[in-house]
TrEMBL record:
Keywords from the named record: Aminoacyl-tRNA synthetase, ATP-binding, Cytoplasm, Ligase, Nucleotide-binding, Protein biosynthesis, RNA-binding
UniProt: ATP binding residues: 238
Enzyme Commission code(s) on record: 6.1.1.1
Purpose: Catalyzes the attachment of tyrosine to tRNA(Tyr) in a two-step reaction: tyrosine is first activated by ATP to form Tyr-AMP and then transferred to the acceptor end of tRNA(Tyr).
Protein name: Tyrosine--tRNA ligase
Motif 'KMSKS' region: where in chain: 235-239
Catalyses which reaction(s): tRNA(Tyr) + L-tyrosine + ATP = L-tyrosyl-tRNA(Tyr) + AMP + diphosphate + H(+)
Gene3D superfamilies, A to Z: HUPs (3.40.50.620), RNA-binding S4 domain (3.10.290.10), Tyrosyl-Transfer RNA Synthetase (1.10.240.10)
Pfam family name, one: tRNA-synt_1b
Motif 'HIGH' region positions after renumbering to this chain: 45-54
Binding site for L-tyrosine: 40, 175, 179
Gene that this sequence comes from: tyrS
Biological classification of the source: Bacteria, Pseudomonadati, Pseudomonadota, Alphaproteobacteria, Rhodobacterales
Length: 412
């Protein structure tokens, strides 16, 4: 990189590792130096909760606001009805308006933990406000004429789908036009001059910039973040149990804390810079710790990230539970509780592992037991057909697989 930004925001973006690409780094830097800039990131409402994969860009919006600028979180109440086809092998299932609104409600609470939506702060908008009322013929004439089908087919997100001879519906093909129109409308309505997103959104962002230039002859910009993988090559945000949700009702604060506590040693410093507010020098110091000391850095990471999302009390409670479970062999107050009906008992330990969600198949359960990885109330279990009844469960039975997976089973 030859140009060295002077604005606070871009300095943070580069120093902490958020930058993948920018359409015009120098022009954006000069605009940021001249005064507050408004930027947005869009979120389609395809699930009831955001997940850890979204957290990088939420933190980017947080730093955007902390450096004196105005962030917009754009809810895709309109675009969710179409579904983003980018780098997907098949069409997303279509959701009803009621399901979309329910998902938006679940997502909004998360943003409030990271951004200030006060009178002059961040804005939360919904693109259904302008997309739902579009007249199709007018839209084709005024907006569609600015798009080249040849160019749209050349975007990697579309080309890769077609190269694999996988169907791309006309509905999905319209998505990139609608997202481009979002940027145009946000500029018109809110003087929004920057769209940010993951690097898989680069083509969609460029479309919005080109459309705004063609329709209004205005200069706006795009900035993308890298698509993160862990040091061992896994996609960031995925765990053995599935998506790492940000809503506490879908993933407990304790399990969220555990996800970060189990970070690979090589990722600690990088994740501290991306997912916490700690100064960069402190992130580097913690990330450079070796041996057993790196575990203390992982606890700091888990506490800082969990504290931002769920509050400092939840983070402290999760740490205390982890210490009791791992260091003292106790039950821990924050362990996920699984209730089994009395009429479903007794069950074999293999069935128990499945019902508690610790394993996904009987084959996996048998392997874990054969390797000595199963403990009930801290006692090892070697017989896969051993029976678990109401008397054994009593007031609560701690089920442990290895050092990291634990559930508390109760009789309902």
């Amino acid at each position: 990189m030859t140009y060295r930004p002077r604005s606070d925001f871009l300095s943070v973006v580069i120093e902490r590792g958020y930058l993948a690409d920018c359409t015009d780094l120098q022009a954006l830097d000069e605009a940021l130096l001249a005064g507050p800039v408004t930027a947005y990131i869009g979120y389609d409402a395809t699930a009831a909760s955001l997940h850890v994969g979204h957290l990088l860009n939420i933190m980017l919006l947080r730093w955007f606001q902390k450096t004196g600028n105005r962030p917009i979180t754009l809810m895709g109440g309109g675009t969710t009805k179409v579904g983003d086809p980018s780098f997907r092998s098949e069409e997303r299932p279509l959701l009803t308006p009621e399901a979309i609104q329910s998902n938006i409600d679940g997502m909004q609470a998360v943003f409030a933990r990271y951004l200030d939506y006060g009178d002059s702060g961040a804005q939360m908008l919904n693109n259904a406000a302008w997309l739902d009322g579009l007249n199709y013929l007018d839209f084709l004439r005024d907006i569609g004429r600015h798009f080249s089908v040849n160019r749209m087919l050349a975007f990697e997100s579309v080309k890769s789908r077609l190269d694999r001879e996988q169907s791309l519906s006309f509905l999905e093909f319209n998505y990139m036009i609608l997202q481009a129109y979002d940027f145009l409308e946000l500029y018109r309505r809110h003087d929004c001059r920057l769209q940010m997103g993951g690097s898989d959104q680069w083509g969609n962002i460029i479309n919005g910039i080109d459309l705004t230039r063609r329709v209004l002859d205005r200069e706006i910009w795009g900035l993308t973040t890298p698509l993160l993988t862990t040091s061992d090559g896994r996609k960031m945000g995925k765990s053995a149990g599935g998506a790492v949700w940000l809503n506490g009702a879908m993933l407990s604060p304790y399990e969220f804390w555990q996800f970060w506590r189990n970070t690979t040693d090589a990722d600690v410093g990088r994740f501290l810079k991306l997912y916490t507010d700690l100064p960069v020098a402190e992130c580097d110091r913690l990330g450079a710790l070796g041996g057993s000391e790196i575990n203390a850095a992982k606890v700091v990471l888990a506490n800082e990230v969990t504290g931002l999302l769920h509050g400092t009390e939840a983070a402290a409670s999760a740490e205390a539970t982890a210490r009791e479970v791992f260091e003292q062999g106790g039950a821990g107050a924050d362990l996920e509780v699984v209730t089994i009906g009395a009429d479903a008992l007794p069950v074999s330990v293999i069935q128990l592992l499945s019902q508690t969600g610790i394993t996904t198949s009987g084959k996996e359960a048998k392997r874990l037991i054969a390797e000595g990885g199963l403990r009930l109330n801290n006692e090892p279990v070697a017989d896969p057909q051993a029976q678990v009844d109401a008397a054994l469960i009593g007031a609560g039975l701690k089920v442990s697989v290895g050092k990291k997976k634990h559930r508390m089973v109760q009789v309902g």
